[in-house]
């Protein structure tokens, strides 16, 4: 059974990659243009989608120009039931974005598999109003059957949609009647890494040095990161 799940998961990730290939290319072009223009890549999510936000921020091999958008009430470890309530509360997105000067040089990436709660939808709306492109990591299958608590969905509001193909309920095993092995975190991390790979290839082809973190636990890592911290900490205060 375990081997069957491994085969099933690898097949699913291959399907995610193939399904999103064209959009990944487009998003990589937009991200590289933003980074070259000295813009900021902002990332957001709620609940377990914050695992994907953590993947984007201050991660060895990751982009140094990432600013996570975060509110403690959105994290289940700060209160499980209250985190669900928080993402359903209209107005929280405006609070989180208060003081964030969004521009057309920036890109906002929102992770939300259901994509139906006010928090991700209102983030997307506010960013679009500022001229900031919005990239949604979401599931069309899930949002199409979930209650539209914000009147619309993240997919409908976003500039680009990366579909993680997660089925309603997130659990993926056993395939015939899934009750465990949620797949959204794996699919989102895979999609994010596919973007990083495309970014590096494009940057290398144009002779541009992509701002990437080094691990602080390898020789020379701290020294390599020092310049990144000096450049980005003034605009990304949580790097301090």
Task: Tell me briefly what this model is.
The strands form two sheets. This protein has a five-stranded parallel sheet, with helices on both faces. It has a two-stranded antiparallel sheet with strand order 6-7. 47% of the residues lie in helices and 12% in strands. By secondary structure, it is α/β, with parallel strands linked by helices.
| Topology order in helix (H) and strand (E) letters | HEHEHHEHEHHEEEHH
Strand order of the largest sheet: 2-1-3-4-5
Number of helices: 9
Largest sheet: 5 strands, parallel
Secondary-structure content class: alpha/beta
Radius of gyration: 18 Å
N→C terminal distance: 46 Å
The level of helicity is: 40-55%
Cα shape: globular
Say how many strands there are.
7
